[in-house]
Amino acid sequence: MAAHGEPAGPVDPRPRDAVIVNRPRRMRRASLPAERIPLGVPGDYKPCVARLASGELLLVAFHQHRLEAEAIREELFFYRSADGGRTWSARLPSPMLGREPYLTVLSDGVILMTAHHLKQDVRNPYGHGYALLHRSADGGMTWRTVPIPNTEVPGAPSDDWVVTSRNVLERPDGSLWLGVSASRGRDFLWRSLDRGATWDRTRQSQCAGVDPTLLWWPFWAETVLWQTRAGDALGLWRVDPRVVPRLPGSDVPDYTGDNVERLVVYRARDDGRRWTREPELGSWYGEMYPALLRLRDGRLLCTFTVRALGRPLGVQAVLGDELPDGFRFDFAYDRLILDIRTPTNASSSGGGFGPTVQPDDATLVTAYSWRDAEDQTHLEAVRWPVPE
């Protein structure tokens, strides 16, 4: 792992048709050409894009409708692209439930999509926040859904909330891992031997050094899992900075809300029951929503969101190297500024989220949401070249 790198200050504004390279060193270029494609309607939020087995791109996001009192109704929708993200289909509404949908495409083309459902949504049947796992075996044309209420988490109180890891991990033996958590350290690693059709829900997991009494949130929430070539599994956890040691040379930010949470890395060397802490990833406070992509030339790309503290806010990326047992990134230099729409004086980002896909040898596509000066969110996809 690289040493941590505190984000540099604001970058100079550049045209919309560029990806800015902040503090170039290895790349030695100040910008890359880019093509930005607006999508959706105002209020759309947090898109996730994936490349399907057919080569088609599938993008999913959600929209929140505010109703009377505190009630809401959140709806999922899809877009498809058959030309590498140049053009997209019409908006495709979905009856599926959930928010912050996240796609995993398995090696055989099966699609798994995690999401969660807020208790104030008028369609929530449980009265508490719960998770969902949607599965499609036909390229996203039809879906089967597994709800994950707190009755699926042993020991969870009746009013507890449940979330999952962001993605599903495909292991070398073909089995699948999905992290499932309620609050206070009630953490389980679901396993599937049939491509996500059914799940063994009995295996508990534990991250070494984490005091469950300090956790106000389900610990597996938003974790991104990665399979190393050597066989171990790594997880990038988003955590409250008050429950883990502070970054070297830093003070924990005094900031209201969860926008200053940060990333930590844990490793599982066995069956996923026990996870041990790894050296720091290199990112800073207020940076979250990571996604890792193995490029066709062998390098790695980490897409993430700067949600507070650093400037500019929004989606950024860094290139890195894959090691036999993990990865190495330098967050201090060569930051690729993918989202240039969020105003520099905004108090928080418009979601960001990522991730990035590679439709062909020369092109990358990243989808994100950004927030305008009136605090309204918007969707956009950016096509940009694989950096030299």
Structure, briefly:
This protein is mainly β and 388 residues long. The protein contains no helices and 28 strands. It has strands spanning 18-22, 31-33, 35-39, 44-51, 57-66, 72-81, 92-94, 99-105, 111-117, 130-136, 144-148, 163-164, 169-170, 176-181, 187-192, 206-207, 224-227, 233-239, 262-268, 274-277, 287-294, 300-306, 314-323, 326-329, 335-337, 356-360, 363-371, 377-385.
Descriptors for this entry?
mainly beta, disordered N terminus, single chain, 28 strands, Neuraminidase, five-stranded mixed sheet, seven-stranded antiparallel sheet, 388 residues
Report on the structure:
47% of the residues are buried. The protein has strands spanning 18-22, 31-33, 35-39, 44-51, 57-66, 72-81, 92-94, 99-105, 111-117, 130-136, 144-148, 163-164, 169-170, 176-181, 187-192, 206-207, 224-227, 233-239, 262-268, 274-277, 287-294, 300-306, 314-323, 326-329, 335-337, 356-360, 363-371, 377-385. The model is unreliable at 1-14 (pLDDT under 50). With 388 residues, the chain is an all-beta fold. The chain has no helices and 28 strands.
